[in-house]
Each structure stands twice: as structure tokens, then as C-alpha cells.
Amino acid sequence: MKNLKKKVILTSCVFTMIFSVSASISAAQDSTQNLPSKSIVPYDVPVGYGAMGWDWPTTGETISDGWGWTGSRFHKGIDIAVYKQNVYAAADGEVLGSGVYSDSVQYVTIKHDQNAIEPGNTHNKLVSRYLHLVKGSQKVKKGDRVNQGQTIGTSGNSGASDPGKDNNYHLHFDINNKSAEFPSNNDTIDPMLFYPYNFGSIPNIVLDNM
Ligand SMILES: [Zn+2]
């Protein structure tokens, strides 16, 4: 009787040990799977500006000219090759300007509700610009509230801001981080950072304060 009792206790001990070891292995696997990687950010996970959920500003997706330096010229935004398509407010905000620049570029500018999020620059509103619109197509005026996705005008080819591209129909779209209607080169942000889902080949950036 004593021996039988010992056997039962021993058997149950071994069973418990096996069970607890296998349970802890599966728990370890689960916790590994749930750990986010700190060094690799998958392209389809929006972070930073990509997490703001901005709308694409028109219907076409062909980028004919990107943001940044090309030779000696700094392009403040992206050019989207579209012919007389609706132009949409990329996010909620207030119309900062609507009309024509002195170089005959028809435009709309929107000051958004969201702040720039770079470290050290968390107090300036983001401003987007939509240039080369069809003359008189602007559907909003200075001071209007606009909702994300609202049609604000029609893309065209007004003005001559892009050398070599003057007569090409396209929407120039830029975003700046200084609440300014007329951004300097240093004020603009690559708009593609805002669209991680639409354009998977563009890597996201991780910002310090996010
Ligand atoms: Zn442009």
C-alpha cells in the first residue's frame, strides 16, 4: 500500500513536471511572437506621419516627380500625373489660401488640425498645398472649414513652377511643418511618409516621440 501510494505520487509528479515544462515552452513561444521588433518596422504598419491616416489628394497614383533634391533644384512636394481630376483635402483643416500666385499657379492651401510631429517641433500645424489647378476650379475659399476627402478643386497645368514640366498636367502636392502658406525648402516633409499603405515600397520612419 505504501509502495502504491509512492508510485502514484511519483507518477503525478513526473506528469506535473512534463506538463509545466511544455506549458512554459508554449508560453515562451507566444510571448516571443507577441514581441514587436524594435529594429524592423514592417512597411504596412503605419507609424509617425503614416499613422495620421491622411487621404491621397487625387485619383491617380503615378508620381512623375518626387520630393527633394534633383541636381541643383529642390522639389518641395510630389507631382502626381493626372489630367483634370478631382483634388481632395488630405485631412481636416481650414483653408489658408485659395486663388492664384503671381506666377499664375492656381492653388489651394489648407492648415490642418494636426501638429507636426518631429522632435522639437510639436507646436506647428501641418499645411498642405495643391498647385497647378484648373483656373477657377477652386471650390473653397480662405477661412472655410474642410473635411478630409472633400473635393477642393480640379487638377490642371496652370503656372510654370516646374522647369521642363510646365505644360504637363499634374497635381503638385506638398506638406510643410511650419504652419506656413509659402514653405521654404527646409519646411517641407516628403509627402510619401504619410502614405504607408498606398505605397508599400516607401519605408516608414520611426520618430523619437511616437
Ligand atoms: Zn511639383
What report would you give on this structure?
This protein is of the alpha+beta class and 210 residues long. It has a domain at 55-194: Distorted Sandwich (Glucose Permease (Domain IIA)). It is 16% helix and 26% strand. The protein has one helix at 2-34; strands spanning 63-65, 68-70, 73-75, 78-80, 86-88, 93-100, 106-115, 125-131, 145-146, 151-154, 171-176, 188-189. Strands 1, 4, 6, 7, 8, 9, 11 and 12 form an eight-stranded antiparallel β-sheet that branches. A two-stranded antiparallel sheet has the order 2-3. A two-stranded antiparallel ribbon has the order 5-10. The chain binds zinc ion (ZN). The site of zinc ion has 6 residues, from loops.
> Radius of gyration, Cα only, in angstroms?
27 Å
Task: Tell me the series of helices and strands, N- to C-terminal.
Answer: HEEEEEEEEEEEE
Bulk shape: globular
Going by CATH, the architecture of the domain at 55-194 would be Distorted Sandwich
Coarse structural class: alpha+beta
* First-residue to last-residue Cα separation: 66 Å
CATH superfamily name of the domain at 55-194? Glucose Permease (Domain IIA)
Sequence stretches where pLDDT stays below 50 over 5 or more residues:
1-31, 200-210
Strand content: 25-35%
The helix count comes to 1
**CATH class division of the domain at 55-194:** Mainly Beta
Largest sheet: 8 strands, antiparallel
Q: How many beta-strand runs?
A: 12
How is the topology of this model organized?
Blueprint lengths: L1 H33 L28 E3 L2 E3 L2 E3 L2 E3 L5 E3 L4 E8 L5 E10 L9 E7 L13 E2 L4 E4 L16 E6 L11 E2 L21
Antiparallel strand pairs: 1-4, 2-3, 4-11, 5-10, 6-7, 6-9, 7-8, 8-11, 11-12
Zinc ion (ZN) binds next to loops.
